[in-house]
Design goal:
Elements (H helix, E strand, L loop, with lengths): L10 H13 L4 H14 L5 H14 L6 H13 L4 H15 L5 H17 L1 H4 L1 H16 L6 H16 L3 H18 L4 H16 L3 H15 L8 H14 L3 H17 L3 H17 L3 H14 L6 H17 L3 H155 L6 H24 L2 H6 L1 H12 L5 E7 L7 H22 L3 E9 L2 E8 L9 H6 L2 H10 L3 E7 L2 E9 L4
Parallel strand pairs: 1-2
Antiparallel strand pairs: 2-3, 3-5, 4-5
Length: 649
């Protein structure tokens, strides 16, 4: 089983295309994926290069949130053959990180991470644990997306696990599903190639190699055009397995040698040892005991297969019988002792597990007895309590009747008292409502009078004094152009420039008193002009409007404009800020205003500050529109939030 992504059979073309992605002008996420895949590809043949690609992948996609999760998965791939414990930790990190994302890509990588995590623990937990992980974690992560290439791949891996545990019928069932999916969804994929090999191997392990030959032939057709592909190693392993079942030992040895050349080229240590074991088995059948013994001793010394205790026990047994065939009883006995010792050790562990199970059952039985005894005692006490409760119930009913009577009388008295109090409260409420209405009417009259006076003064300034000054300026400009020399009469032209500036300032004052853009273009445009009016070289004002409708009553628009005008004026005058944010938004009958600055702030409870910033006039307008105002200020700046009602009532 290969805990890795499967690469296309045409590996060279695929890796070349990945290199082009890295060198080209593609986006950073495409480069990230290419780096990660190349890291996985070179993890056995060139670990330093694999590590370099892994780190480059993380750097390329550092701005994408899912990159850290993908990095943990490919880090697990990098450590898979180097350090199983580190690989397991990396896969766990990937699973935890991927669980925070939703979507096909994250779920597929989560399925791969669970599968790879289970394989890293195979030697420690055994195949049942791996199969449990596949059925409960890995496959369920891929199944919601239907019959996909990924699901076909996972079914193939599950069938392999079942085959190695002699569950041939179950393995065939999952392998059939895998081939059905992959022939339909990915007919030229590496996943289908391995599914064919899995099916062939299943029959070979049942000594039905001739039945599985057609699947081996289908795999051969797929791999034949790609003699440089690392997948050839797996093909020749299953081909050798087929020849072994057919007792064609010489052909089996030829397939083994072909396969070994690929495992050495791509540094596939585990498959290399499995080839050596096939070679040993063939030598033994050919009665080449010396060569068989040397191969088996090499496999044991190399430790890849021997890490699994059951594998090591099998090798000890074979070495013992080989030495016996070769007429060396001393060595045969020595290997038999090692076999027995390891077998006893494994048996002891199994016995401990059985003892623990028996102890757990015994403890559970003892607990059940104690619970039964306690239940009996509880029932006896319950009978006694029931008798006492009967007398208590009779007494309680009598007391309850008396208490009910007293309560009824008390309720009548309380209700009569509450009625009188409620009448008084209602009267006070009516008085408060009348006062509030009078205050609102007074505020409305003051604000309307103020706006009328502003409008009158603005018109007088703009149409009267402004027009007169503009006329004087035009007459002087016309006269001076024909009677005066600019070089000789600089003082006159300086005075003319001051007059021009005065006219502009007068118009600014008039517009501030009565904004024409509000009447002509609406609230949003008027607020934008107001922000531009207050903007300076050392002050940036950002205005954000959200869903401001144009059908707001004009009087309410004018009040909103005055509120914002007051807030900006206060911020510009007192805050000493370099940046101001104004945000106005409307949601139905609610209108929200937020002003934030990065100025020096002020103490909210200070009477001087409140008075200096015109809060009294501001609160009058907010109250008039039945609004609420919140102020937050510290040394980092000031934030004012206002919510107004604009339903026109």
């Amino acid at each position: 089983m290969y805990s890795q992504e499967l690469f296309p059979l045409n590996e060279k073309k695929y890796t070349d295309s990945l290199q082009q992605v890295i060198k080209g002008n593609t986006n950073s996420l495409s480069k990230r994926d290419a780096y990660f895949i190349l890291s996985d590809y070179y993890r056995n043949t060139a670990p330093p290069l694999s590590k370099k690609y892994l780190e480059n992948g993380r750097k390329s996609g550092e701005k994408d949130p899912i990159t850290a999760a993908l990095y943990s998965y490919y880090e697990g791939q990098y450590y898979f053959d180097l350090d199983k414990e580190k690989a397991a930790v990396s896969y766990q990190k990937a699973i935890e990180a991927l669980s925070k994302f939703k979507g096909k890509k994250s779920d597929f990588y989560k399925a791969l991470s669970w599968y790879s995590y289970g394989i890293t623990l195979k030697n420690k937990e055994g195949y049942p644990y791996c199969i449990k992980i596949m059925l409960e974690k890995s496959i369920p992560a891929a199944e919601p997306y239907g019959e996909t290439q990924m699901l076909g791949y996972l079914y193939t891996q599950l069938s392999l696990m079942l085959t190695y545990n002699a569950e041939f019928e179950k393995a065939e069932s999952y392998n059939t599903q895998a081939i059905h999916i992959l022939e339909k969804k990915a007919p030229h994929s590496t996943e289908l190639f391995y599914a064919y090999l899995s099916r062939s191997g299943n029959y070979s392990y049942q000594a039905k190699g001739s039945v599985g030959k057609k699947f081996l032939d289908q795999a051969e057709k797929m791999i034949l055009p790609y003699p440089e592909s690392s997948a050839n190693a797996s093909y020749f392993y299953h081909k050798a397995l087929y020849f072994i079942t057919q007792q064609e030992n010489k052909k089996a040895l030829e397939a083994v040698e072909r396969g070994l050349s690929y495992t050495k080229k791509f540094n596939m240590k585990l498959l290399m040892q499995m080839f050596y074991f096939q070679k040993y088995d063939t030598y033994k059948k050919l009665k080449k005991y010396k060569e068989a013994k040397e191969l088996l001793e090499y496999v044991l010394a190399e430790k890849t297969l021997g890490m699994d205790l059951n594998n090591r026990k099998t090798i000890y047994s074979h070495l013992s019988s080989l030495n016996e065939f070769m007429g060396d009883p001393v060595q045969a006995l020595a290997w038999e002792k090692k076999y027995s010792k390891l077998s006893d050790s494994l048996h002891t562990e199994n016995v401990k597990l059985e003892i623990n199970k028996l102890e757990a059952k015994f403890n559970a039985s003892e607990k059940e007895k104690k619970i039964a005894l306690l239940n009996a005692e509880k029932k006896q006490k319950q009978l006694e309590v029931n008798k006492k409760n009967y007398y208590l119930w009779v007494l309680s009913l009598a007391l309850l009747f008396l208490i009910s009577l007293l309560t009824f009388l008390f309720v009548i008295y309380t209700n009569s008292k509450k009625l009188s109090e409620q009448k008084e409260i209602n009267l006070q409420q009516k008085i408060e409502d009348i006062k509030q209405k009078e205050e609102l009417a007074l505020t409305k009259a003051i604000l309307e009078g103020e706006e009328r006076e502003r409008e009158r003064v603005a018109k007088d300034l703009h149409d009267g004094l402004g027009g007169m000054l503009a006329g004087v300026k035009i007459n002087l400009s016309t006269w001076s152009s024909t009677h005066l020399d600019p070089e000789q009469h600089k003082d006159f032209y300086k005075i003319l420039h001051q007059l021009d500036h005065s006219v502009a300032e007068l118009r600014h004052v008039a517009r501030n008193l009565m904004p024409e853009s509000l009447f002509n273009f609406g609230l949003e445009t008027a607020l934008n002009d107001l922000c531009e009016f207050y903007t300076r070289n050392d002050l940036d004002i950002c205005f954000q409007s959200i869903n401001i409708e144009k059908n707001i009553p004009l009087t309410i628009q004018l009040n909103i404009y005055r509120i914002v005008q007051e807030l900006l004026a206060n911020a510009v005058k007192h805050a000493q800020a370099s940046s101001i944010l104004l945000q106005c938004s409307q949601s139905g009958d609610s209108f929200m205003i937020t002003v934030e600055d990065n100025g020096k702030g002020f103490e909210k409870n200070s009477k001087n500050n409140i008075k200096s910033m015109g809060f009294r006039n501001l609160r009058n307008r907010v109250n008039y529109l039945k609004g609420k105002m919140e102020v937050s200020s510290d040394s980092q700046g000031t934030t004012i939030n206002i919510e107004l009602t604009i339903n026109g009532e």
